[in-house]
Amino acid sequence: MAEHTSSSITIEAAAADVMGVIADFARYPDWTGEVKEAEVLATDAEGRAEQVRLVMDAGAIKDDQTLAYTWTGQHEVSWTLVKSQMLRSLDGSYILTPAAPGTTEVTYRLTVDVKIPMLGMIKRKAEKVIIDRALAGLKKRVESAPK
């Protein structure tokens, strides 16, 4: 079983506001850094994205990938890889836990398997960088949004 990498951050906003930013794929290029294009390919009955195509540029790694999303209640979303040029697999999730009034703890878990050989230690370090940058970008985006 592949090892996952995870990290958490506290965001000064309600869980619904945080999930609203996570679910707004069209705006990902505005705050994620690595996502250059995002296109929702399919939605569920509630209008939430089920399949999203992302064009990524993370320096050494450039990729065009499609991810399938699963929404669990109002506080969790997970995704898995449908297709990619660079990746063999990618599984991730955001889990939101309401904390003190008006704050939310966000946990991001990620497991990536690339098609090119890579040492486990280097892969986990890359996962950690991706997670930390995503959480920092999410926090900045949510907390700077007009209330």
Task: Provide structural commentary.
- By secondary structure, the chain is α+β, with helices and mostly antiparallel strands.
- Helices cover 26% and strands 47% of the residues.
- It contains three helices and seven strands.
- The chain has helices at 15-23, 28-31, 120-144; strands at residues 5-11, 35-43, 49-58, 61-72, 76-83, 87-98, 104-114.
- Strands 1-7-6-5-4-3-2 form a seven-stranded antiparallel β-sheet.
- Strand 3 and strand 4 (61-72) form a beta hairpin.
- Helix 1 (15-23) crosses helix 3.
- The longest helix has 25 residues, at 120-144.
- The mean pLDDT is 87.
Topology record:
Layout: E1 5-11, H1 15-23, H2 28-31, E2 35-43, E3 49-58, E4 61-72, E5 76-83, E6 87-98, E7 104-114, H3 120-144
Antiparallel strand pairs: 1-7, 2-3, 3-4, 4-5, 5-6, 6-7
Helix pairs in contact: 1-3
Task: Explain briefly what this protein structure is.
The protein has helices spanning 15-23, 28-31, 120-144, and strands at residues 5-11, 35-43, 49-58, 61-72, 76-83, 87-98, 104-114. By secondary structure, it is of the alpha+beta class. α1 (15-23) crosses α3.
